[in-house]
Amino acid sequence: MAMKALSKATIYQVAQLAGVSIATVSRALRDSELVTAETRERVQAAARQLNFTPSRPARSLAEGRHAANGIVFPDLVGPYYAEVVLGYEAAAAASGSSVLILATNGRRDAAAAVRDLAGRVDGLTVMGRTVDDEVVAGIAGTGLPVVLLARDPVDGVDTVRAGNTGTARALAEHLVGHGHRRLTFLGDPDDSPDVAGRYAGVRAGAKGARLTLVRGKGLDLESGRRAAAPLLTADKPDAVICANDEVALGVLLAAADLGLRVPEDLAVTGWDDLLAARFAGLTTVRQPMRELGATAAHWLHKRITEENRTAARRRVLATEVVIRGSCGAHEEVHP
Amino acid sequence: MAMKALSKATIYQVAQLAGVSIATVSRALRDSELVTAETRERVQAAARQLNFTPSRPARSLAEGRHAANGIVFPDLVGPYYAEVVLGYEAAAAASGSSVLILATNGRRDAAAAVRDLAGRVDGLTVMGRTVDDEVVAGIAGTGLPVVLLARDPVDGVDTVRAGNTGTARALAEHLVGHGHRRLTFLGDPDDSPDVAGRYAGVRAGAKGARLTLVRGKGLDLESGRRAAAPLLTADKPDAVICANDEVALGVLLAAADLGLRVPEDLAVTGWDDLLAARFAGLTTVRQPMRELGATAAHWLHKRITEENRTAARRRVLATEVVIRGSCGAHEEVHP
DNA sequence: TTGAAAGCGCTACCAT
DNA sequence: ATGGTAGCGCTTTCAA
């Protein structure tokens, strides 16, 4: 077969073509300092001519490492995860590591998929609502470095998160400051650790006001819209604090359908500061998404390369309330 | 070391514990039919006890395949790529393949990174403006299955794209139909094949109107905003057709700053149908993003598993204009 | 500076 | 049904 020539060349062929041993080829292509300039040149020429690239599995097997790490997230829908993953990928690439991704959403064998992934990497980042702590603990117990992202800590495992509770409290207080007294939190605390934290904060900040919890099903726009209709006509809240921006935008749509004016009749807030929030004039909370991803990647890299294991770290990155028009009248608000 | 017990166990240890050969372990853990039920049980018990997972590199080396494929994209910013990648991941997972991602943006060694990636996968999907055709051809020449996504075809390589030209033409004609006569296209056709296609379509649809090309630098909101200011005061166009939604949203912001009313004084259109476009009332074009990703993954899987190589395929997925308020007055427009 | 050879952990073929 | 064993392609001592 003529095509055969195009197939992957091995180190043996390069060695033969260059007239040296495979050990020398291996060195010439990486070690630098252990090989004559002349030899290296000859080897490199041969490698180029054969279009040689070392087999990754073979290297990994010999070296005992993958030069890759993985990140597990529920979904990539909405800018949140995408930004996090991007920050992660960039940081991982900077430390010479490829990244494998795994979306668990809509997968019944998530645990198995994560375990499989664990076998392909030198370290793993696991986000929020993806797999049980048990699975995480099992993998971490293997000795595989793991960092948790936007998720409640597991014993002995690093955790990076964005602040939820404190900022949520500030947000609720802001609403109460506006005179709102019938608050509704729309979102299911059982949905994710993030939502739970936000709800906890809102409770703390809603002193002196009525606070109703409405466990909306999903975290997308349509879920928010659907949940809003009955909620707005029944509870008659004067402020709806949503688990995230998409839900909030859905509420905005539903309110418009019902002829409710925002913020006069109803205040609405979200979380994430999507681009759409800006154009919808939605008061929300901004999170350092890329930084979350980058931090996770950095920590993982540290773990992978560290000599002797240090204690588990935890970090909560700062978030901030972004005031726009939807939470009540302000003198002036920039889009 | 006590911890040692937690470290990865090998097939040899399982074999010893179960009192069988490694060959039997290998079979028991996969083949099913070649092993006594009793033996299998014993092996599985041993494997479980040792928390054994076969080494991926070792398997890959022995089997000659990675059970993984990769996708290369410029960036993950904005929902577009994220959605595509998500569709890709889901489809790849369905065919039992892990996915490696690589963002080339802001990386000077993109070509090298892509070549490295090529050595880690059974197939590769390469998106738009990431690496030169030369690199793609080189990799495809290796025999590695490759599919191009949102990118001009390369000889002998599969290509999946979303329609640009036809829909762009329809969009331009729609604007002309509204009475607009001084059109400006904001975006750099050299930026990506997609933008080039859109511009070509706009030119075809702008018959009878003046069309100016303004090569805006980036494809993000700030780029659009910055480019818009001088453009709007100098050219005085009555319609700006933007390369994508983010740029268009930037133009909207700039127009507001200048006191221009949309659409009365100025029509603006985007591309992508971001969530924000809906709330900004932006006329735009919707693309089947997930389907793009899923199609690429499917094709790649076919290529990887096919017996004898078939001819290169090409497909252009349909896109559609989404009319909102920003392109001119209509009777009624839903958000 | 270079070569020979022993693994790395697994799969699959050949015997039994 | 099970065991023995030859690779898979590379890295890395150990000698020379």
Short characterization:
The structure is a homodimer of 335-residue chains. Chain A is an alpha/beta fold and 335 residues long.
List keywords for this structure.
four-stranded parallel β-sheet, 44% helix, Rossmann fold, DNA-binding, 13 helices, six-stranded parallel β-sheet, 335 residues, 434 Repressor (Amino-terminal Domain), elongated, alpha/beta, homodimer, disordered N terminus, 3 domains
Overview of the structural elements:
Two copies of one chain form a homodimer. Chain A has 335 residues and is of the alpha/beta class. The first copy, chain A, has three domains: 52 residues, 434 Repressor (Amino-terminal Domain) (Orthogonal Bundle); 123 residues, Response regulator (Rossmann fold), CATH 3.40.50.2300; 122 residues, 3-Layer(aba) Sandwich (Rossmann fold). Helix content of chain A is 44%, strand content 16%. Chain A has a six-stranded parallel beta sheet with strand order 2-1-3-4-5-11, with helices on both faces. A four-stranded parallel beta sheet of chain A has the order 7-6-8-9, with helices on both faces. In chain A, helix 7 links the parallel strand 3 and strand 4. In chain A, 51% of the residues are buried. The interface between A and B is large, with 60 and 60 residues. Chain A binds a DNA duplex (16 and 16 nucleotides) through helix 2 and helix 4.
